[in-house]
Amino acid sequence: MRNAFLRTAVGAGLVLVLAACGGEPTESTTGGGAAAGGDTIKVGLLHSLSGTMAISEVTVRDAELLAIEEINAAGGVLGKKLEPVVEDGASDWPTFAEKANKLISQDKVATVFGGWTSASRKAMLPVFERHKALLWYPVQYEGLESSPYIFYTGATTNQQIIPGLDYLKEQGKTKIFLVGSDYVFPRTANKIIKAYAAANGMTVLGEEYTPLGHTEYSTLTNKVVQAKPDAVFNTLNGDSNVAFFKQLKSAGVTAESMPVLSVSVAEEEVTGIGVDNIVGHPVAWNYYQTTENAANTKFVAAFKAKYGDAKVTSDPMEAGYNAVYLWAEAVKKAGTTEVEAVKKASGGIALERPEGLVTIDGETQHMYKTARIGIIQPDGLIKEVWNSGEPIKPDPYLKSYPWAGSLAS
Amino acid sequence: MEGILNQLPIGLSIGAVLLLIALGLTFTFGQMGVINMAHGEFIMAGAYTAYLLQDFADRNAVLVALPVAFLVAGLMGLILERTAIRHFYGRPLDTLLLTWGVSLVLQQVARDLFGAPNVQVLSPTWLQGSLGPMPYNRLFILLLAVGSVVAIWVYMNRSAQGRRMQAVMQNRQLAATSGINTGRVDQRTFFIGSGLAGIAGVALTLIGPVGPTLGTYYIVDAFLVVVAGGLGQLRGAVIAALALGLLNSYAEFWTNASLAKVIVFAVIIAFLQFRPQGLFVLRSRALT
């Protein structure tokens, strides 16, 4: 009995090893070309469906699946239906690189939509560059990057963090405290914030980082309260936000006494944090479920119809949803899914999306996006209180900001 | 100065959280030698119990959930012990793999039942506010930890069942020859240990996220407390939890959260060099 089990286990292990070896590319290094064969086009979706990031990433995958479904219902791309291949990055950065490799080499997908944390993007970047394959990354991030094989459909810093700081400055909040998770996005974001503060007469009273998945915030709360800042700039990611806001509230901090501006808390996270604990605090994004235009009305209705009325839509979901449409548009324009042709065709593509007009900047492969500051409402939705008026040109290296000169190095 | 003083109650409350999550493990790991990686998921089950009971008890769900979560998590533990773990006694590595697998399965079950995003558990209105630097919800957790310790102590030392449990723990063979049904005692121990995890889960809804991966955030800390305190030692666990809580609180206050974690681990490693068996050692005549 036990031997039989062992044999099966060893056999299964061997099969897995062989499958993995078979997936290594031997001659061709171009992704995309092979996928055009047959009557479907395979596209990869690579998000964390398990682990600490699953809370956020599952919803982005759902939005991407919705976009694929809608595009297929409208006749597909180049007369072919899109066929999603879904993989789980498991909140583990090497797994992202491994699964990206699998999608490109083994499944021969035309493009991949995936990632959330910058750590996962940084892990996948060399894989996509080596295979000359395309990644569409749907989340706001810390900028200072522009890979020729990545399209960034979320905001870069000058479309989210800098507008956020402009807003705080306008509100007269000059003494700020920085709280973030301990990885590349918060650390880089805070470098930018400190440079901005120095140039704009703001003071940074403290800068604290906690490991991802950290849930004990009483000490940090004490430090923040002792420092008496006008506002907190929060770059925590994932479940930590729940613990942070719950413990901040029990320490007596309110949105009136000390607003906490978050850049990684959207509609989806508000429920988990508990509206009670975060109501009145500001957030900075490019899209809210309440953003008013025809494309958004349609998106929200379609999302609720597919996934249930209780679901909310958020900025990264919308950016993931857009990514599929923008890629499909570029493929239609190029007439092929071949990566170089798609890249070439993408520049200047402009679509009316739920967040408003989105235009691909061919040079940086980032998007023109409108920045929006919102306040969390008692019903858990976010009401816009400020926007940039027009889509902001993406500037991942902050070249157009004199105070940011030393950051790009 | 005020900041430094505030860290004292904060340290105590961190210690109380550590104690609550580790109490159940002092039974299952400390007394039975089962490395139960699914302990974190029993904590999660407790938290979700509070979430579900909101439909009936609204904001006071946390109170109602305490006994219910004890039963729910306890029964889950009992089922795990009966169906799987009992076949693996004396094979710690196999148990570790088994329970780790079970923990992954339970996480996925939670994800399928409740969805991947965190859910909202409203805390009772009477737990909002604070007594000086100590929020009422932290005070509640501290009292809950003290209450649990007292209850366990009374059970272990004042009840016949508890004394049988101690007998099995100290010398299984001798206990068996004296007519104690050790299998029955194991079941009971596992039930209580897992049930305590459920209570911890309810308490954690006041301060942390409630989602499928909740258990993974606390499992390592729980094992740390049990190992540092000495296997199966109630007073060891209490002292270790409070010491680690205070150490954590001050280390983080003077450095930062990441470094504080490193310091805590370094101190524990150094401590175990001198006292590999933890703070207190169980004196046993068993031939193991």
UniProtKB/TrEMBL annotation, chain B:
Protein's GO biological process: amino acid transport
Membrane-topology annotation of the record: Multi-pass membrane protein
Cross-referenced InterPro entries: ABC_transp_permease, ABC_UrtB_bac, BCAA_transport_permease
Subcellular location: Cell membrane
Domain of life: Bacteria
Keyword hit for Cell membrane: yes
Main subcellular location of this protein, as a coarse class: membrane
UniProt cross-references to CDD domains, sorted A to Z: TM_PBP1_LivH_like
Recorded GO CC terms: plasma membrane
Protein's UniProt keywords contain Electron transport: no
Residue spans crossing the bilayer: 12-34, 61-80, 92-110, 136-156, 190-210, 222-246, 253-274
Keywords: Amino-acid transport, Cell membrane, Membrane, Transmembrane, Transmembrane helix, Transport
Molecular function in Gene Ontology: transmembrane transporter activity
Family stated for the protein in its record: Belongs to the binding-protein-dependent transport system permease family. LivHM subfamily.
Annotated protein name in UniProt: Urea ABC transporter permease subunit UrtB
Organism lineage string: Bacteria, Bacillati, Actinomycetota, Actinomycetes, Streptosporangiales
Gene: urtB
